[in-house]
From TrEMBL:
InterPro entries: DUF1707_SHOCT-like. This is DUF1707 domain-containing protein. Residues 1-53 form the DUF1707 domain. It holds the Pfam family DUF1707. It comes from the Bacteria. Residues 221-254 are annotated as: Disordered.
Amino acid sequence: MRASDAERERIAEILREAVAEGRLDMEEFEERLGAAYAARTHGQLEPLVRDLPVPGAAAPAPLSADAGGVAVGGGWAERIGGSPTSKWAVAIMGGFQRKGAWTVPRTFTAFSLMGGGEIDLREARFEDREVVIRCFALMGGVQITVPPDLETHVGGIGLMGGFDHTGSADGDPTGPRVTVTGLAVFGGVSVERKLRKEEHRRLKAERRRLKAERRELLRAERRELRDARHGERRERREHRGESRLSLEKDGRDD
């Protein structure tokens, strides 16, 4: 089965806990972390945590997301339901934005004429589990951003324009199902999967911390190597001194 971004991040979090507990050294942690982010299937993720005390490691449990698309338990149930914030958006030689804590209706229509629009679902609520976003871009564009574990299906048409279907992916079965459709004429509609900004900052800080720890380990190794070399030189000097004393003693004896 294909692995999702949320499942890869779940494995990465397990590895971070393991290195913090001393179960993995830094070299093995970095090797497994790189393999986790490069993995495309559950079969590639499974061996990375097989020897760690993780419940259900053989098959990562379904993940749900909090307001930013970060894997947590029970997040989607709290984000489904409520009155929609708006049901349509128009950009004519201008732009529109729908982002932050807004409520997505069952059907949302976006129209862009020589303009651009941004629809961000990472922190949104949803009126229903089944959501349809209809995008019509005429010499304009619409950018849709979704969290990694949101089930998304793209089925629009590009006519002398572009309708990006690469954003289609399965997601958490407990969450909403978003269908993106419509038409792009001399324009474009794109769907991109991203973590929320807070999660990006956390991962960036984690990478900085790991780099700092690795630098400190390298410094410690260099110090140990330097001390070992100093010790070897000191032993050689002492050995030469003992040899001279022995030669002087032999000369006196003669």
